[in-house]
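Appendix B, Record 12. Input sequence as logged:
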Amino acid sequence: MCSSDLSMKFSMDALLELRKGLNAQLAPMDVKLSVNDFIVRACALAMARNRFFNASWAGDRILVHEQVNVGVAIALDEEKGGGLVVGVVKDTDRKSLRQISNEIRSLGEKARTKGLSVEEMSGATFTISNLGMFGVDNFTAIINPPNSAILACGAAIEQPVVRNHQLVVGWEMAATLSLDHRVIDGAMAAKYLQSLKQFVEAPTLLLV
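Logged structural output:
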């Protein structure tokens, strides 16, 4: 496999504000959306726009999948041996933020207690590894075969940024996309990141 990496920064101001408001409304229902829930849905919608990010190398051809299935890397507790497993949210582009949140939480709890079934770890067409909750700013993840790409997300960090030609304090997140060049070239990857940026920076699009 010949692979390469591309990185991009995303303004997180609007997403964090939307998340805060939604969580206040959902609190009576014991629902709490994470930043990762928004990223998972944004990645799925960007995949639907950029079909080769929902594809695999099948030996002598490119296989484009019908379902958009996003794999989410889950860190296991050290006392259970540590390491990572990937739980899969099926038909991710067709699910709401709340549905995605519930599934990811359920997969995470099961992975750390009973363990995930083969079915729950199968069928991913793209993977997200988010280490932001551990305070990691930026990193590169290893592609999860047979996926053609993986997105590594760092923490949303409050820092000096330029907004409308003014220096202000804002929230930014760095993400690194690793891709399999047998399926995706650099220009295609740049277009995918542009689509992803649109969804992340205009997060109300994730609600429809």
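Residues 97-112 form the longest helix (16 residues).
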